[in-house]
Amino acid sequence: MDIARVDLNLLVYLDVLLRECNVTRAAEELGISQPAMSNGLRRLRDLFGDPLLVRTSDGMTPTERALELQPLVRSALSAAEQAILPKNDFVPTKSDRIFRIMASDYTEASLMPALMKKLREAGPGIRLDIMTPSDVSFHDVERGRVDLIINRFDTLPQSFHQLPLWRDQFCCLVASDNPVLKNWCLESYLASRHVWVSKTGMGVGVGMTPDDVQRLGFVDEALHAIDAKRNISVFTRHYQAAILLAQRKDLIVTIPSMAALNLANNHAIRVLRPPFEIPEMELKMVWSPLLQHDPGHKWIRGLIREVCEEIVESRKPAVK
Q1: Which structural domain, as residue segments, surrounds residue 29?
Q2: What is the pLDDT of residue 207?
């Protein structure tokens, strides 16, 4: 096949079609009519000798050939995007760009204050739009509508770029007048009432149940491994709410230690090591391949990485 005779715009069509798996939405994203997109799909089918997308009960589904082509096409377009980017570097001190970052309140409490301080010095005109996990879908990230997502994740699309920021141990928050402090051990931990707190992944959350160990996460999976179970009285998706609840003398909160950094001088709450082993959690920064080579995006990723390294180096969790 002579590449000079191929309309390379068709690769752009194919990239969007395989992301959307919907002709109408693909047309809307590219700003063309639906008939034009349908015609583009027909030409793509002729070009590759494959239907590429077939209608099933689940909607338009990529064929095996289409799935093989998807990373190749994305890589080729990414290289083309990099080639045509302006050569001038991003100048943060002159920029008023808005970076949209999805972050849980764990990330907001542990990372954002230090990031904002650094940002005021390095790029005073730059603004952040902090979004919650419920505001964003993987689809939004893939299309570059959200610059970064910072959270811990069970699974991620293979096409996304990711960078580990830090690993965090767990700690227990106990009110200073909680009777459990007289005998802090696994037995007293299990006999107490607990606050469950977590918001991993993306999208709108669903109701929790104490019996769904796999969905409950790190703490309850660790207990399950030693044939134990805690008595969960409150489920919340907000770490700050959980910290407030920890001041009650009849509740225990078990959370990642970085979320408790500001409690070192809080005499109402004791920060303790859990009386059993819990695997560390990993905080990651994730972004779309569409933004991989953007100069401004590379700058903000580098700044966040620098801030995280400083936090890990200088601020140790207040666990006793």
Answers
A1: 3-84
A2: 55
